[in-house]
Amino acid sequence: MGVFTCNQKQSSPVTGLLFCIHPNYYHQVLVFMFAMNEINQNVHLLPNKTLSPIFGHNYENEMGDCGGTMYLLFLKQGSPLNYICGKAYKLMTIVGGLTSHNSKQMPHILNTYKMPQLSYASFDPALSDKVQFPSVYRMIPSESPQYVGIIQLLQHFGWTWIGLVVSDDDTGEILLRTLIPRMHQSNICTAFKEIIPTVKNLWDKTIETQRLLEAISSVLSSTKTEVILAHGVSRSMVGLQRILILQEREMKPIERVWIVTAQWDFSSVYDRGAFALKSFNGTLSFTLHTHDMGEYEEFLRTLNPNRSRLYLIHWFWSNVFRCSFPKYNFYQMEGGICTGEEDLGSLSEIVFEMRMSGQSYSIYNAVYSVAHALHAMFSSRSKQKAMGDGSASNLLNVYPWQLHSFLKNVRFNNTAGEEIYFDKNGELAAGYDITNTVTFPNRSLRRVRVGKIDPQAPEGKMFSINGSAIVWNHKYNQSLPQATCVESCQPGHSRILQQGKQICCYDCPQCSEGMISNKTDADHCKKCPEDQHPNKNHDHCISKQIVYLSYGEPLGIILTSFALFLSLITLVVMWIFVQNQETPIVKANNWNITCTLLISLLLCFLCSFLFIGKPGKITCLLRQTVFGIVFSLAVSCMLAKTITVVLAFMATKPGNRMRKWVGKRLAVSAIILCSFIQTGICAVWLATSPPFPEFDMHSQITQIIVQCNEGSALMFYTVLGYMGLLATICFTVAFFARKLPDTFNEAKLITFSMLVFCSVWISFVPTYLSTKGKYMVAVEIFSILASSAGLLGCIFFPKFYIIVLRPELNTRDQLIRKKNDNI
Predict the structure, then answer these.
(1) pTM of the model
(2) 683-701: per-residue pLDDT in tens?
(3) Which DSSP string do the residues of 371-399 spell out, in sequence order?
(4) Taking the domains of the chain in order of start, what are their residue ranges?
(5) Is CATH 3.40.50.2300 correct for 2-141+355-421?
């Protein structure tokens, strides 16, 4: 431990500050002196007062801590407790407590005297308890940002399967209790969890210690994970150092990505040979935030033990340079005599760091915090002249408890330009640096800051890292190390947990039809938007093809050609019949009905064009209604022809009352009535639930079907049903009249044509219901063309044959002869 005192110029009363130091960390003494020198040379900070140091040692047990603290509290004169026989200085503040052990023992004594303590290295969260430790101020940030940084670091590199090595003390238990739940929430799993036992020294030979360390060494050597998180204070991690050193001596270095928390300064070792050079190459460590200071490096380069009276400077110089100081009884076996001109900058960073480390920076800020608090207190007392008699303040009349209010509210910019202040828990409002350690064969190392954790940064920018600046362990050939239980699920696949294993161990089935995943290790697949569908690999969505029966595609061209061809045939037949309307065969078959039938068949062929092309509002309204009406007209004409044939035969019998029904009026009435009923049905359909165009995005995965929604399926099938009813009646009547003896009897032709018609439309219904999209439309067009062609062929082809190819049969004589033959 160490104390610095504050002397009034040309006066002896002083204030004091206690500084705790471990001999292995002499840089703490140096940065402490550097800060005091700066303060003493600053005419604006503590003017007319000078800081001077007193140092002492840390201890490794409760008795030593208590004794050392009491020894310094009472002026190092062996004075009885609570009694100071001399007034050489006034002890006001203590800076110290390298470990949690020290920092928790000292306050129990210091709280009695309300003595402020600034701890610069203890992460124990218990020190944030202002009820138990009201006088403790921590020059380090809370551990919470470090936990956040660990999780974000693992997520940044995609490491989800890591090992944990923690110390067997409160520090390790706190990390396991705090970090593991956060890891699980972020889908990060532990491949193993090892507790490093605390050993007395690096080469502890006890059987139990060796057994435990050998078991841990076996786990570390055999693990397949490439990332291991190590956490614990330096003295608790000696066992891990021993494992790594022994493995390297056996030429089996445990080369992994070691992530080391700020609690363990793994490069500061008691023995410069006790450093796992290969294992720690490429290590990522969280360190206390620091700032480079050229003035500090210059201070170190000008240091000379022959001209310095620094605390233990000769002991330090002898140890780091392996040389002897006979004058001060410091000897080294393998070295020569120390000249004092040796250069600290020539030492390896394992032995001594020239730059200001995170811990040094904390001490530097601690000294300045106390100086600013003292300055504020003295300035306040000077203004108030609050000594009862109004005289100037005497430094011996100030007390440690008076400094608390100034320390709590201290806020200043240090020489690096960074703002220093304490939060409500008495912790420094700061973050962490992420440091990459690179080792070299000459047993030197270089530490480079590659990222940081800044709790004061805007949301989303708290964590930052420069991955390209990281030098990985040479084992990885500068490729990014992997740490996953299984290979990552590629886009197009999703994760499914393996039975009985951790969440990081999973299978990767491909996304099902209609689903995609566009990122690695997706938890589940998602649907594409309605107007898109998955690509072949199911890793992104592509726009669906808009589909309808168009004139440009082969199917549309074929149907259009058939419709045009049959329409042309119908026109030819009409022309032939018009040219021969005075011939017996045309007259015998009721020219008016025949002409109406031909026109309705022509309309049937032409209405198929309403089904081809992109459906619109008008075409959807006309499509089914026009089809239903013109087909009903055609079937009505067929029914009228059949009734005419039957009535004509019955009228030939003498005295038959049916004679008066024979004529145009009955046939026309039948056609009008039957067509009117169908027209009425269509009118009701259009008035209640008319058809409309729609985009069907669900029937086909890769297509958007543009189609006409029938509005009311009931009305659609009612139209078809009525048309089927007419066809059935027509077929029945024609079937029974097929053998009536009459010249040019059409009953047989009508029977066969109705048979074809009904067969087509009976087949249409199941076929129509079993198809989708444009093929459904094609089925209906085909049924329209086939049934219409059946009527045209069956009714008119025999007559067309006689008129065109056998005109000799189309004569009155032939009509009479055939009639007589029938009789």
Answers:
(1) 0.68
(2) 999 999 999 999 888 888 8
(3) HHHHHHHHHHHHHHT-SSS-PPPPGGG--
(4) 2-141+355-421, 144-288+431-476, 486-535, 554-822
(5) yes
